[in-house]
Amino acid sequence: MTHKGLMVWLDSRIVRYEDAKVPILTHSMQYGSGIFEGIRSYGTEDGTAVFRLRDHVRRFLNSARIYSMRLGHSQTQLEAAVKSVVKTNGLTDSYIRPFAFYNDDNIGISTKGKRVSTYIAAIPFGAYFGKARETGLRCKVSSWHRINSEILPVEAKASGNYVNSIIAGNEARNARFEEAILTSIDGDIAEGPGENIFIVRDGALITPAIDSDILVGITRDTVIRIAEMTGMEVEQRLVKRDELYSADEIFFTGTAAEVTPIINVDGIRVGRGPGRTTRALARQYSDIVHGKVPEFSGWLSYV
C-alpha cells in the first residue's frame, strides 16, 4: 500500500505525507517511546463521521500524561485536527492514526528536554481482518504473557507495549493460526494483540476485567453498552483459559477489528461458527457507526 498523495497533520501544519520526515535516529524509533491512537471514520447519510472522537482523543492525552509527554495541543485542537485530516483527504471510511513522539536524534534513553512532535494521518480503510470479519478467526493462546502494570503502564497506548503483541502474533501465525490470544502473568485470559475479547455463555456476555491487565478499549465499552441496552447480562471478571474451549461464542473487538468472531481456539472449534449473539452485536455496532441509531448519535463527530 502506498500513501503517496495523502496529506497529514504535523505539529499544527497540513503537509504532504512524503514531506513528513524525521531523522533515522529519532528517539521514539529507537526506543518505542511514542504514544498513539487508532480512530475510525465512516460514511453516514449526513456525511463522514468520526466515531467516538472525543473518547479517543481523551485517551491519547491520558497516554501522554502517563509518559509525561507535553504535546502542546488541547483536546479541542486535536479533535479539530483529526477532522481536518479526514476532510482534506476526502475520506469516508478511514483509519486515523494520531501519534506523538520524541522528535530528537540524540543518543540516550532519557527523554528530559527532548522535543515532542505530534502527527495525525488518515488512510482509506475497510475490514481489518478481511473476510474473517464475517467467517471468523482461528486463534492460538500464546506462550507469551500480556505485559502488566508492574512492568509498563498498560493503560497507555504506547508504541513499546506492542512489541509484546508483535511477538505473540508472530508465534500464532507461524503455527498456522490467524491471531493470538494473550494471558495475564497469572494465566487468566487478557486480550488479543490489538483487540479485547468477549465470550458468550448461556446467554451472558463475559469479558476480562481491568485486573486482567487489559487496555480498556473504546470498542469494548461500546459493545458492553449495546449489550446492556438490549437486556443482556454482562460480566467483567477474570476469565480462565478453559472457558474459551467451552464458550458458546467468542469474538474480538477493537477500532480496527470492529466485532470479529473467533471460530477456533487452539484447534478446538467454538460453537458452530460465528454465533447469533456475535452477529447481532456486529450488526448493531455497524448501524451505530454509520449513523443509523439516533440514541447513539452523540458518538459521531461530523467532518
Can you offer a commentary on this structure?
There is one protein chain. With 303 residues, the chain is an alpha+beta fold. The chain has two domains: 7-124, 2-Layer Sandwich (D-amino Acid Aminotransferase, Chain A, domain 1); 132-289, Alpha-Beta Barrel (D-amino Acid Aminotransferase, Chain A, domain 2), CATH 3.20.10.10. The protein has eight helices and 17 strands. Strands 8, 9, 10, 11, 12, 13, 14, 15 and 16 form a nine-stranded mixed sheet that branches. Strands 1, 2, 3, 4, 5, 6, 7 and 17 form an eight-stranded antiparallel sheet that branches. β15 (258-265) and β16 form a beta hairpin. The longest helix has 14 residues, at 53-66. The two termini are 25 Å apart. 44% of the residues are buried. The mean pLDDT is 96.
Strand content: 25-35%
Describe the largest sheet.
9 strands, mixed
CATH fold annotation of the largest domain: D-amino Acid Aminotransferase, Chain A, domain 2
Rg calculated over all Cα atoms: 19 Å
Element pattern in H and E: EEHEEEHHEEHEHEEEEHEHEEEHE
Q: Can you give me a brief rundown of this structure?
A:
This protein is of the alpha+beta class. 27% of the residues lie in helices and 30% in strands.
Topology record:
Blueprint: E1 7-10, E2 13-16, H1 27-31, E3 35-36, E4 39-44, E5 47-51, H2 53-66, H3 75-88, E6 94-102, E7 116-124, H4 132-135, E8 137-145, H5 162-174, E9 179-183, E10 189-191, E11 196-201, E12 204-208, H6 218-229, E13 234-237, H7 241-246, E14 249-254, E15 258-265, E16 268-269, H8 276-289, E17 300-302
Parallel strand pairs: 8-9, 8-15, 12-13
Antiparallel strand pairs: 1-2, 1-7, 3-6, 4-5, 4-6, 5-17, 6-7, 9-10, 11-12, 11-14, 14-15, 15-16
Helix pairs in contact: 2-3
